Amino acid sequence: FLHFPHQLIPFRPVDRNGFSSRSRRSNTVPGKLHNIGWLQLDSEYKYHKVHRGRDIEYKPTKSILHTIATHSKGLDGFNPYYSCIDEFHAATSSDVYNVLSSGMGMRENPHLMIITTAGFDLSVPSYQMHNDCVDVLNGLAEDNNTFSMIFELDPEDDYTNPEVWIKSNPNLGITVRKEWLQDQIKNAQNSRNDQTNVLTKNLDMWVNAPDSWIDDKYIIQSMKEFPQFDAGEIVSYVGVDLSSVSDLTAVNFMIKYNDIFYMDTHYYLPEQFKMQGEYNKQKFVEWYREGYLCLTPGNVTDYNYILNDILNYPYQIKAVYYDTYNATQFAISGTQEGIEFVPYSQSVGSFNKPTKELERLILQGSVVMMNNPVTLFCYRNVQLKYDMFGNCKPDKANRDRKVDGVIAQIQSLAGYLLEPVAPSIC
Question: Above 80 in pLDDT, residue 340?
């Protein structure tokens, strides 16, 4: 990470031998700038002064160029005007980013820059930030304070095709030789490790071992406004993925109308929710403020609050399909209110048919979802888990990668598919 608290002015650092060899970071900025020709600038040290081997002062304005470590410990109190974080994909948390960003509050026109290639861990904050920027560019979110420039291949591109390399290498043929890149890609075709490195570093493609389930573009295309339904004719199939204690809960209301499947997915978290991964926690707080999820009272999931929302849904409910784990009282209470609750097995075999059917319907454009970034977040996290017979169900690589919304949608569709003659409003 590089941190520029005020303004960056051309300078000439002292010889790298003047810095302590015990501190790797103390040589990082001055040493590299010395090597690339900054020696010619201010050779008499008229305007610049080096402090402690790692701070460079611009005397006329008392501005400081300062390098910091990759952790946030001891960073509170900074008041930067400009900060630059390099290779953000390597950061496992957003702690340093948060400290630098919050420290700019007193500046009239601060600038926080992030420069990074792609990486191979989709749970890191950089990947989430990449997706946020893509959402803004696609019109799914609004952020007038962020300028994003992303050079990457399109999902459908063949990375071995030289014609597409320019997309992720705008300086191809100038700072990156085409012949060199061609050799790298040729080697990558014979080695999985080399392939990961080339895809992330040279073609700026995020990869995380298993392939993602459904490409973003199909989920984004499916997010549209719902038509006006006639409440007297509509039947809703409800899928519920309850959290065990204090995690994300998803409830999906599915309606089939004119051969289109409409997915209205609601999300819930307890007010005092705890979540691994600071960046994920911040995103859920933002989504709550934007109205994309509800916070229920207390520090554990309030099933009565969720049940009340189901009871108040404006359309007729055919049945609620739910996972029996930790949901006995929830189902009893709902049944007492006159709604049929149907337990749905979480086995791979039970999920196989509705999972494949949902994929088919989405790819052919027969699914419409409420525009909700939490749903997109869930789809991005899905990896398919297979059994020895080829049956599959959505899974997640770790607890941070929530898939609850997808599970709830599949259970809604499963309930519809269980009908002897699946009803449809035409």
Answer: yes
